[in-house]
# Entry
Amino acid sequence: MSEADITELDVSGMSCPLPIVRFAKAMRSLPKGSLIRITGDDPFFAQSMHEVCQENHCEIVETRSEGRRVMLLVRI
Amino acid sequence: MDTSTKQATIMLVSGDLEKAFLAFVIATGFAAMGVKVRMWFVLSGINCVKRRRGLLAFFHHVARRWGRLKHPANGADDGFQRYRVNATDTPIQDVIGLLNRGGPVHLPLAFNNFGGIGPLLFDALLRKKKIVRIEELIQDAIDLDVKFTLCSICVDSLGLAPEDVVVPADVATVSHYMQEAMAAHYNVVM
# Structure
């Protein structure tokens, strides 16, 4: 899977519940199996994304964090 | 996304800002989790989604109603005839509609309202903290396919129509609510 196939979604500066709402919207617009890289800096961002992915049967492929910023690569 | 069969119903009875805000946070959260959500608006809860009308709309509404009373055939193809009994309409409905204009950005706080200053402080706080506000949450709920329903008693008694609210809503009765609430995994009335 090359970089071009990954949809970027930046939710930095947004707080609960906007990151998961934006992610759910993106998930609806994309076909199943595509990759989303979502970046957020809310203190509960990583935890809520794990819960949402668990409910929606998505897979978190890769997790990276730089200070507050967390980057998750999700296969929907 | 898989087709989930989980359902949630949220009934909003109160027209207070905190409760409306909480109801929409729960609704969008559930929708993001892939749950089918239906929100019910009854009594003052309709204020949370009411389209705010001015004085001109009031006079237009009254003129239209009087025209329909004089010539009943005029209103035969009117959209809200389907939901309402127009024969028993009274001017009291127009007065209530003028006094209680509602609107999602004009909701009072239940506590520490301070005659309208409380919601302004609350709004300034949310802006400063970059937390989502109720008008954005309503748009997000629409985008996430949350369903909205108005109570038929309220629609009839207050003289409302589905186009008087800012969300795409339908009108249903108590039996429909019972059916939905029994099928739902989560049901809350606030």
Observations:
- Residues 17-32 of chain B form the longest helix (16 residues).
- The radius of gyration of chain B is 18 Å.
- The longest strand of chain B covers residues 7-12.
